[in-house]
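BUG: 3D viewer hangs when loading the predicted structure for this chain

Environment: internal workstation, default settings.
Expected: structure renders.
Actual: progress bar stalls at 90%.

Input used:
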Amino acid sequence: MTSKRISEQLRAIASAEDFATSTAGLTETWRAADVGVESVEPILRFMEEHPTLDYGMPGPLVHFVEEFHSNGHEEKLIESVSKNPTMVTVWMLNRVLNGTEDPAKRRPLIWALEQASSKADEATLERIQGFLCPMQEAVDVLREYVLQMNNWERECAARHQACKEGRMAYEDAIRIGRELYAPIYEQCCSKRRPPRDFHFSDPPDYDPERDAIS
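Structure tokens produced before the viewer hung:
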């Protein structure tokens, strides 16, 4: 099915009283006709042109587009959100982001949301910020953890040297190290995992200047 035909079918139901229900029937027709990833671009273009329609939660159109996950729909979505973000398309992009663990694959998705911030209307911008703020908070916590662990490892190394020189007992060095690690764990770490075993590196494993976090 051509992009033009898909666009025509969407425009034909744009004024339907229950648009989301109408799209359910349309997407079933597309599946029966074996409509493929070529449908993603005209669907996204329609969403750009009709930003205030109620697409559902998330709705049949969104679910249909997501059937082409890892088959080209992410690139089209990034392009759409970057140039003309809407409430529904930024939500779709965030759904992709939530299902993506690889940092290299997450970066362009986050970049697209950030780019969209300068082009979004007020309501869409508020939604974008709602998606980005928790991510930024997580980045800030990670930066703080790396900084504190860098200092902690340096202090542990200094105490270890004192032990080697006979100026401190190893038991005291370990006890102090554990005591000083506890507040770092409480501030920065998930309680779903227990505190790590006592160990450190010299030079430190954690280096805020070497380990770029973004």
